[in-house]
Write a structure and sequence with these properties.
Helix content is 72%, strand content 0%. The protein is an all-alpha fold.
């Protein structure tokens, strides 16, 4: 199931960083969650280095499209895993604002991920908090 190369992981991690920053608070806890995502795909890599590259990528990009294109061509399982990581970051501060909800709707639309599945993932994570 987990088959993404390092370049894709950097781009998707940049999307996770974008989600983390949308509420203007990019916390250490959110960085840990992003590193967990990186580790789940790139077992033998230096997570701090991949995170640093992803932060640079996110800082130098002004649109989501570059990142969502990396996700769009993957399986529903990979998309589901990425959506789950996005929700983990968004709910990590115990609040979901309109910008975060809007971001998730936009991402799901851009990667052709069903709204119903997105909502189910969100509810499962909120119920397990």
């Amino acid at each position: 199931m987990k088959t993404l190369d390092e370049k894709s992981i950097i781009g998707i991690s940049a999307l996770l960083i974008n989600a983390a920053k949308i509420d203007e608070q990019y916390s250490e806890h959110e960085k840990i969650l992003i590193k967990e995502f990186i580790k789940s795909y790139l077992k033998n890599s230096n997570c701090d280095e991949v995170l640093k590259k992803a932060e640079e990528t996110e800082n130098n990009s002004n649109q989501l499209l570059n990142f969502t294109n990396l996700i769009k061509k993957n399986t529903i399982e990979v998309k589901s895993d990425i959506i789950e990581h996005l929700w983990k970051i968004i709910i990590s501060d115990n609040t979901i604002d309109q910008y975060e909800s809007n971001l998730m709707r936009r991402i799901c639309g851009l990667i052709y991920f069903p709204d119903k599945m997105c909502a189910e993932i969100k509810l499962r994570l909120l119920n397990n908090k």
